[in-house]
Amino acid sequence: MTPSFSTPMKSVFLSMVMILISIIIYQGNAQLPQPMPNQTTMVFYLQDIAKGSSATVTPVAGIKGSDWTYTTFGSIFVVDDPVTLSISPTSEMVGRAQGLLIASAHDGANVNVALSIVFNNLQYSGSTLELQGISRQRESYREVSVVSGTGKFRFARGYALLQTVLYDAPTSRSIIRITITIQTN
Asked: Percent of the chain, pLDDT > 90?
């Protein structure tokens, strides 16, 4: 004798089958996860000199009658720092960090950074990375955005962490480690 199902039981069974079929069809039509763009992390060192004939950063404008310093609101600096592979100033230079620093907070806590890393080494020659954002001067690690790039870094986006690893007050010399993490297409 074959078992028989009552009408309510058939309805529940058919409903379950329809739900299962709907799930299978939905998953079959769902988009597969897209691969992440290439991610690269690079570490460089900015060799920053603020005094003397070899200065690589210098104030060019500010509020009349005030000192033009990194913590004085309205001070504008131009930068042309060598970018090296290690902390040593004599290590291989891979490019230059060129741009502007603007003391943009009344209390001197923040500097607005607009900086281009212009590569001149064999691997990335002619390419640039564009950095922009607020550098919070009182923090050990300062983060700014990588907003674009050219050449091998075309369409790059990401972030850069800045850390002062050496500061010599008498010579106004700084070495800043810059760890750049980017994604490219």
From this structure: 66
